[in-house]
Specification:
The chain is built from eight helices and twelve strands. By secondary structure, it is an alpha/beta fold. The chain is elongated, with a radius of gyration of 18 Å. The structure holds calcium ion.
């Protein structure tokens, strides 16, 4: 589970990071809004912790951009005292929860678990779509024009990353980070194995969507022409 912290108070960000790491989450932190949005859109996170007041771009703006990209990643807002109107705006724009500062480690961890559990209850109509593909990432399953196939979790995570990144090329490094975490020993050929599994499944389902190799850079999904 990888969590992104976007918080400009460095001491608080550092403290949060330590709490999360102690509880076996992988953590990245950034301290301004623009970097926050960049990281958030990478698609590699399982949850975002967003401070509201940030230099550059505020947490609500990041939230709106992430949701407008169709990304369903759980988002918890960190609100300062007296930010009640902001909280409401946040929930209206698709935040999953908010935690008011100061908060205890236990409270934060409980909210994180709850937000992740709720994401696990995503309904099938919330399937991720690209071209003729419909991916249900909760109970990993790929559907192409009514024909379906089970996916193993790593295939599903990989396809989810490609779908949320849409036309952006995804590098093998980003895939390794998503599937195995930053500190893993996984190598490029581990990614290639799962890409080849996915291609076989797309082929089996008769999908016209292709996973195109961009030599030296990575992979991108491309919508094919219907036969
Ligand atoms: Ca702040």
């Amino acid at each position: 589970m990888r969590i992104l912290i976007v918080e400009d108070e460095q001491h608080l960000a550092e403290a949060l990071s330590q709490i999360l790491k102690k509880n076996h989450y992988s953590v990245d932190m950034v301290h301004d809004g623009e970097a926050g949005l960049d990281y958030a859109l990478s698609g590699i996170y399982d949850l975002l912790l967003l401070d509201i007041m940030l230099p550059g771009m505020d947490g609500i703006e990041i939230l709106k951009s992430v949701r407008s990209e169709g990304m369903g990643v759980p988002i918890i807002l960190l609100t300062a005292k007296g930010e009640t109107p902001d909280k409401i705006a946040g929930l209206d724009h698709g935040a999953d929860d908010y935690v008011a500062k100061p908060f205890s480690a236990d409270e934060l961890l409980a909210r994180i678990r709850a937000a992740m559990r709720r994401k696990g209850e995503v309904m099938p109509e919330d399937a991720l779509k690209f071209g003729d593909l419909e991916l249900n990432a909760t109970n990993p399953k790929l559907t192409v024009r009514g024909k379906e196939l089970k996916l193993i979790p790593k295939e599903s995570e990989l396809l989810e990353l490609l779908i949320v990144r849409k036309q952006a090329v995804t590098s093998k490094e980003q895939m390794i980070e998503k599937l195995w975490g930053f500190d893993s020993e996984a190598e490029h050929n581990n990614v290639e194995v799962y890409i080849s599994f996915l291609r076989k499944k797309l082929n089996f389902l008769g999908s016209t969507t292709r996973i195109t190799t961009i030599r030296g850079i990575g992979y991108v999904l491309e919508e094919g022409q219907a036969q």
